[in-house]
# Entry
Amino acid sequence: MPKLGRLRELRDRAMLSQEELAGRARISRATVADLETGKRGAQAATGRKLAEALGVSPGELVGEEVRR
# Structure
């Protein structure tokens, strides 16, 4: 389960609250909070949902792609 190291940065850039992102990704706000703090890693499906909700690739969430 990968850590989503850039989740908070990308959420902030999109100007979304944890609650708003959770709603768009159809996951709980508590899951978003846990992922942002590194309390747990993300399942692949959760990472894809978050990436889609943020309009980025899953690789950008984990910091694998070059920043723009």
Observations:
- The domain at 7-62 is CATH 1.10.260.40 (434 Repressor (Amino-terminal Domain)).
- The chain is about 60% helix and 0% strand.
- The mean pLDDT is 89.
- The helical segments are 7-13, 18-25, 29-37, 44-54, 58-62.
